[in-house]
Amino acid sequence: MIKMVIADDEILTLDMLEHIIDWKKLGIRIVGKATNGKEALELIHRENPEILLTDIQMPHIGGIELIKMLAQSHPNLKIIILSAYGEFKYAQEAIRYGAAGYLVKPIDELELEEMINQSIKSNLEWIGKEQEAAYRKLLMTRNGTPALLQTMASKGIRVFHNFRMFIIQADPFSLNDQLLLDDQSSFFSDRVIQVIRQYMSEQSIPGYIYEFQEKEWLCIAEQSEGFGNHIIQLLLMELPFHVVVGVSDLKESLNQLHEAYSEAMDCLSYRFLFSSDNVLEYEELMLSGSGSSYYHEEVYMKVQSLTDEIVSEPLGYTDWRNKLTRILNETTGHPEGIYSLLFGMLVRLRMKKWEKNNGLDHAGIHPVSIEALKKYKTLEDLLDYLEQTIQQMGQEYNVSSQGNELVNKAKDYIQAHYNKQITLEAICSHISISKNYFSSLFKKETGMNVWDYLTIVRIEYAKKLLANTTLKNYEIAEQIGYENPSYFTKMFKKLTGALPQEYRMDPHVERG
To answer: Which residue positions does 4-aspartylphosphate occur at (predicted)?
Structure first.
């Protein structure tokens, strides 16, 4: 609740001001009433209110003098002046010394409420800035500072106890999501803050949230059991992109804010392992044993053995990816350990390549750094990168004759299944090769991608059916594997330069 003091030398006016508005509904608690300037000053020093509602003419200490004194001792106190018609010049002087506004007696209830709301808004904005600045200072110190906590309390900033730190990071799934987020980052940041603040207010959860850096928000919340899951559910409904939340262990005091931040950030690093999880909690990760950052020697040796196997079969026939995943699943480890393990695997792969070339081609050992690997934020992304590296090595091992053989097998498969819904997975499964490597190999050997080749095969069969049967266009489309006759017509025209019915009437009309 926001604290307010009211001061007027007329008792009836004081009583009227106390009851003219439902102050509780506005979030305001009247912490004292004064009948002169001296009493008002004592009340303010004792209660440290956010708002003062005062008459301009009072005994002992007049309104103007009071405002001057408070400008020094309580610079952020919002002061609203009540004045009679003949005292307008005093009201102007009061505003010059820092009063937030003035009202002319008799008081209009709506005008008073509007001015109070403006003062509340201004006060909250100021507290928010002070609060954010204080948290940033606390995060820079490992054990907090008692003086800073005392300063926060004196400024009306709540000092939280028994809280958790929630770090919320934007986690766009696609390039389009990323571009949208970049284009409207300010709007989405405000929306994240607004949604979470509203939820905390509705659920009476003491806390605070602010944008710590671009696409990252810090939230401190008491009574926070299950709070991370609620954040995810709310933001999934409100935002066109996903977020991930790291949750610290429970902390007793803001002195532990730096520790809470480190724990929540540590949780987010486990996104690398648990890419399907949106909420990563420190307590659960520690209980599951994921906190261990070391691998057993046995695991290291298995990865070394797998590396040798990959080098011996450079085209990727080995099911290395599934084998590596099973090895990593045998033990839980900190992401830093996995990065180190796979970095070692990459280095060994490249050294093995150099050895295979009899140590003659130093340029072939492309540089790699562990920091470069860390740009891949999930294990799947890093394995994709490893797969591309292994495929590139396969291409460099002078296997063009085997490559031709694989492409011919793929062509045979397409010729035999052109009239079905062919998938890249089915083709690669038939010839026992990875999808990424097959796509690059097919393009290299044929000068076209596999889907262009499939289209050519289908249209060639369509031309035979048009020339030798009376089947309708939709029947031909169905027979060559197209569910949509319009799409068949479009592709036929694209490759031949003629519509199917034109080609039926004159096969020599082809211009493609």
So the answer is: 55
Q: How many CB atoms lie within 10 A of CB 35?
A: 18
Question: How many of the other CB atoms lie within 10 Å of CB of 325?
Answer: 12
**Sequence-ordered alpha helix ranges (H) in 203-334:** 227-238, 257-269, 282-287, 297-312, 320-329
Return all residues near 446 (Cβ < 8 A) that are at least 6 apart. Answer: 407, 453
What is the maximal distance between C-alpha atoms in the chain? Answer: 113
What pTM value is reported for the model? 0.47
Domain that residue 442 falls in: 401-509
Q: Is 169 exposed, middle or buried (0-12, 13-18, 19+ CB in 10 A)?
A: middle
C-alpha closest to that of 7 among 47, 68, 65, 56 = 56
- Residues 249 and 282: their CA atoms lie apart, in Å, by 6
Task: Write the pLDDT tens digit of every residue in 119-133.
Answer: 888 776 776 777 777
Whether 316 maps to a domain, the answer reads yes
CATH code of the domain containing 81: 3.40.50.2300
165 and 217 share one domain = yes
